[in-house]
Amino acid sequence: MKKTKRKLVLVGNGMAGVRAIEHLIKLAPEAYEITIIGAEPHPNYNRIMLSSVLAGGASLKEIVINDWEWYKDNGIRLLAGHRVTQIDANRKRVVSDQGATVDYDELILATGSNPFMLPLPGADKEGVIAFRDIKDCETMVDTSKKYKKAVVIGGGLLGLEAARGLLHLGMDVSVVHINPYLMERQLDETAAKMLQKELEQQGMKFLLRKNSGAILGKKRVRALSFTDGTEAEADLIVMAVGIRPNVELAKSSGIEINRGIVVNDWLETSVERIYAVGECAEHRGIAYGLVAPLYEQGSVLAKKLAGLETTGYAGSVTSTKLKVSGVDVFSAGRYDEPEGSRSLRYQDEVDGVYKKIVIQNDKLIGAVLFGDTNDGAKLFSIIKSGESVVGREKELLLGMAVSGQSASPEARLKEMADEEIICGCNGVSKGTIADAVLAKGCMSVGEIKACTKASGSCGGCKPLVEGLLKLYAGDEAGVGVKEGICGCTPLGRDEIVAEIKRMRLKSIKEVMNVLEWRNSEGCSKCRPSLNYYLGMLFPEEYVDENESRITNERYHANIQKDGTYSVVPRIYGGVTSPAELKKIAEVAEKFDVPMVKFTGGQRLDLLGVKKEDLPKMWEELDMPSGHAYGKTLRTVKTCVGNTFCRFGTQDAIGMGIRLEKAFERLNTPAKVKLAVSGCPRNCAEATIKDFGVVAIDGGWELHVGGNGGVQVRATELLCVVKTEDEVVEWASAYLQYYRENAQWNERTSTWIERVGLEEIKNALEKPEDRLALVERIQKTLSLTTDPWKQIVENDHLRKNFEPLTEALTINS
Ligand SMILES: Cc1cc2nc3c(=O)[nH]c(=O)nc-3n(C[C@H](O)[C@H](O)[C@H](O)COP(=O)(O)OP(=O)(O)OC[C@H]3O[C@@H](n4cnc5c(N)ncnc54)[C@H](O)[C@@H]3O)c2cc1C
Ligand SMILES: NC(=O)c1ccc[n+]([C@@H]2O[C@H](COP(=O)([O-])OP(=O)(O)OC[C@H]3O[C@@H](n4cnc5c(N)ncnc54)[C@H](O)[C@@H]3O)[C@@H](O)[C@H]2O)c1
Ligand code: SF4
Ligand code: FES
After folding, report:
1. Where do the NADH-rubredoxin oxidoreductase C-terminal domain residues begin and end (predicted)?
2. Which of 352, 482, 486, 567 has the maximal Cβ count within 10 Å?
3. Domain containing 513: what range?
């Protein structure tokens, strides 16, 4: 006789509940007759990707996880558009608002959360919405076609993703945040300020420390007023101020609730045969709001319902990644430095990178990464493992290879269990990725994404997916692993440069259009890269796009942590005069410069300068820019050489000044530092420079690819030459070859590691090749001008340095 199946009912056709069902039908396909009841009129879709839909990165069709056919194929009855209004736990039956009555043996509640709507006067006006489902997303798209001004209340993950989407839709967007800095639940103040700056560059406006008071307007919203008496115009208000577990149904059915529906380690509620999973559930006092823990819960519940052994759900450490194109932000665990913990930080103002790790009892308990989140997955797995990090703290912070007693990243991936989730957003396990590579033949991250959805949402799992691809496909995957220069394009640097050359594309917009950029505005990675490649390829025709440059280059000064700038005039070869020093001192005094400091590159740094003072100071200094802020030639450090030193064999100062005058103002993929030493004692430290010149008896050694920064690298010897003219010729050819072949933002040290010294030697070996390179660099150099002088002499450019006026209107 055929065994009758038990009846299983799932209330909530969302991400967590359906995920549990997917697991269950794999573990026990014949055990249950399943009914899913969902209030939304859609099949199960990826809520996470609503942000991508809004920002133009995916269509609604693409975010469906299980289409209508999936329910049929798996024999699941779906009641879509039905809201369950009542649970009769005695008769084991649920009732929907559409009049359906369904009996159960086991019942899962997966009702998710409700967005918290601030109870402001006027909150019921037309144009005030949340951002939670497809309907909200559609409302935003429709509104953007008719209206201009959007205000998002809440500067958390959801608010910022909504704001980015609205910007993409062409709206003028202001984010209202109650706290002094953004994403305070995930970031510390430093990272949050860097994030704000980046988002401001994308066009977002911020109103911080603002308490909303009322929503103004007749039928439709007109403005949002604040308790301080100010107001902001708004045609649309999106509230993104947090979520509350949706417990109404459970509460009215007598199930124990606290903040969420209280569950034990097996996701059982206080009522027999009723389980809760997902955002509506509260486990050991926590109601989670991210999918990774909810998927973990789903997998435990599936095992429990399949009658399999499980140790239960023990809670999760969470990590988050903001899904905004061009902004890399990662946060995991305790970023907030609890008592008894210590933190290590690294900050690179020029490249906009900030990293912080938090350690307690020798274990990594939290991390915040901004600008470079490559190590996010690795740090997260170390946090979860609870292993000791003693002696490895600096390596972890700086993202170097993890050495010592801990396993290598490959070993760590190998050791992971098949069910371990690699992609939290899409719930893709290691086993599924292995299957995609080994059984389905996926040979690139893109193919794995298409096959499994892994890495398709926030992208935070990409390094792990790449690692697994290498693990299973070995070197064969080498080509396939190549990724686009940023999330806006699947094309790599070489393909882009080749296409620009082939089609003679002449502007950033044109490149993005023709090469079908996913994000039509580009991001902070691709815009400066394209600006550089176009300028490098077409020095005569291309008009530099100032707004596509990084902040420091736009203002021709380094922004400091307090928002002031630093001024570093050029001092060729580090040689100055009493008159020049007097002039610098007078300017420093006149503009109340709080600090004057010698730099490591032998010049003077005037620190703490207000933005609006920059042009006036440059004017009074009347010296060329030292380009201490840009991806250009920085300094040529020299020793005194044979001018004064008794060991010197050559004129190091003269050589250095000649090189500095030859290459000042040259745009390069990343900053370039030179040095010249007058004898092999090498006092100018030429062997840790991008191009180092060391005098020997009767000639000069030319060294390349050195770096004295985070990852110290000694130079490699390129060649030995006899005359000063040859030094300049080889330096010109080498720098031009670097300009033409490196990726934007790639230092010579990394570039040489990547391509190998032999390739460079071969390219420069023949005199005719060298001369062709020299000719091209000279053409470029002949077109450069001093940026400070240009700004000083142009009223329009000077205006960019004036202080901004308050964006708010005052309510009188
Ligand atoms: C725009 C956006 C972006 C996000 N991005 C991320 C991200 O990058 N990373 C991340 O980890 N998380 C992200 N999240 C959060 C993530 O989407 C949620 O954690 C997840 O969807 C919760 O799953 P759930 O099944 O518990 O709830 P839901 O997915 O909300 O599903 C609950 C379902 O139950 C239905 N329901 C409720 N009550 C009833 C009832 N009485 N009867 C029938 N049906 C009912 C609801 O209509 C809903 O469809 C994002 C959320 C949003 C809104
Ligand atoms: N990338 C991601 O991982 C991602 C993206 C979107 C949403 N989510 C999840 O969705 C859920 C909802 O996100 P959220 O950002 O709304 O929640 P949240 O609770 O993380 O953030 C809400 C923010 O609103 C601010 N706020 C509160 N009251 C305010 C007020 N009156 N005025 C202005 N600001 C106010 C808070 O300071 C807080 O920073 C969360 O669980 C979140 O983790 C995650
Ligand atoms: S490198 Fe040689 S020449 Fe230059 S200062 Fe040192 S000892 Fe003198
Ligand atoms: S973890 Fe977000 S896409 Fe994989």
Report:
1. 319-386
2. 567
3. 493-549
Q: What residues form the annotated binding site for siroheme?
A: 683
CA–CA separation, 230 and 211 (whole Å)? 10
Taking the centre of ligand 3 as the mean of its atom positions, its distance from the CA of residue 757, in whole angstroms, is 27
Whether residue 68 is found in the same domain as residue 165? no
Of 549, 564, 588, which marks where a domain is finished?
549
For ligand 2, the distance from its centroid to the CA atom of residue 324, given in whole angstroms, is 15
621 backbone dihedrals φ, ψ, rounded to 5°? -65, -40
In this structure, the number of other CB atoms found within 10 A of the CB of residue 246 comes to: 22
User: Tens of pLDDT along 572-581?
Assistant: 999 999 999 9
Mean pLDDT of 87-91: 96
Confidence of residue 805 (pLDDT cuts 50, 70, 90): very low
Residue 672 · residue 748 · CB < 8 Å: yes
For residue 694, report the distance from its CA to the centre of ligand 3, in Å.
10
Q: Do the beta carbons of residue 777 and residue 666 sit within 8 Å?
A: yes
Nearest atom in ligand 2 to the alpha carbon of residue 240 is: 16
Q: Which ligand is nearest to the CA of 637?
A: 3
Residue 762: count of CB within 10 angstroms of its CB: 11
The answer to the question of residue 450 being in a domain is: no
Residue 324 CA to residue 496 CA, distance in Å, equals: 23
Domain count of the fold of the chain = 4
pLDDT tens digits along 454-471:
886 666 677 788 889 888
Residue 329 maps to a domain: no
**Of the bound ligands, which one is closest to the alpha carbon of residue 47?**
1
**Cβ of 458 less than 6 Å from ligand 4:** yes
Is pTM beyond 0.90 here?
no
- Is residue 594 within 8 Å of residue 650, measured between CB atoms? no
With CA atoms as reference, report the closest residue to 384 among 338, 421, 352, 438: 421
- Nearest Cα neighbor of 185 from 288, 284, 263, 314 is 288
User: 526: which residues sit within 8 A by CB, 6+ positions away?
Assistant: 326, 485, 486, 488, 489, 512, 517
Q: ipTM value, please give it.
A: 0.92
Answer yes or no: is 476 within a domain: no
